[in-house]
Amino acid sequence: SQKIEQNSEALNIQEGKTATLTCNYTNYSPAYLQWYRQDPGRGPVFLLLIRENEKEKRKERLKVTFDTTLKQSLFHITASQPADSATYLCALNQAGTALIFGKGTTLSVSS
Amino acid sequence: IAGITQAPTSQILAAGRRMTLRCTQDMRHNAMYWYRQDLGLGLRLIHYSNTAGTTGKGEVPDGYSVSRANTDDFPLTLASAVPSQTSVYFCASSGDLNTGELFFGEGSRLTVL
Fold first, then answer.
1. B7: part of which helix (H) or strand (E)?
2. Measured between CB atoms, which of B4, B41, B98 is closest to A103?
3. Least Cα separation, residue B79 to chain A (angstroms)
4. Closest to B94 in 3D by CA, of B49, B64, B43
5. What is the tens place of the pLDDT at every residue in B25-35?
6. A90: nearest Cα among A99, A98, A81, A82
7. Distance from CA of B14 to the nearest CA of A (A)
8. Tens-digit pLDDT profile for residues A50-102
9. DSSP string, B71-91
């Protein structure tokens, strides 16, 4: 069966450290993968998109990798801050379908 | 710029009642979506529309219907609400079904008693 898994429900780190979130998928062949941020009581907000032919994408303190052999994406936040505390969702597509979301990882950054 | 507007933001509803959740976007996006978000289950797609006049079923369509009479509006109707439809509902839009980011509304929290 098809699955998209974010293998940590919660991640707690100290301010200044790098947070690494994992997204694994099975039985999909996505053309791209996206990461979203969701704050409590709010809708998800797009952060980054990485395509199947891209290994890595960066945006400010964010870095995303995409390994289609391992069927895995890693999402890194460097120099993390308490304001980075939120739930992070990965999402992927297959051609012609809407985005399928993982259940999310809730990141808590303590000062 | 409003983006995606959902209404109501919150509603308590008796089981068996009919309810329509409204969604309007001002970005002229072709594709629109309805997701529900439940604790432990994440976001699940209910229905989608690639363009005005067309709709499709997502992962959990039963008990819901949608229409897409024009580009801007994509209402979600619960014909006869049941307690299992208690959830937070998110509407989203995208400029392209196959690429690009989703823009989400702020959600409609529905409680069915």
1. strand B4-7
2. B41
3. 24
4. B49
5. 999 999 999 99
6. A99
7. 23
8. 998 999 999 999 999 999 999 999 999 999 999 999 999 999 986 666 888 99
9. SSB--EEESS--GGG-EEEEE
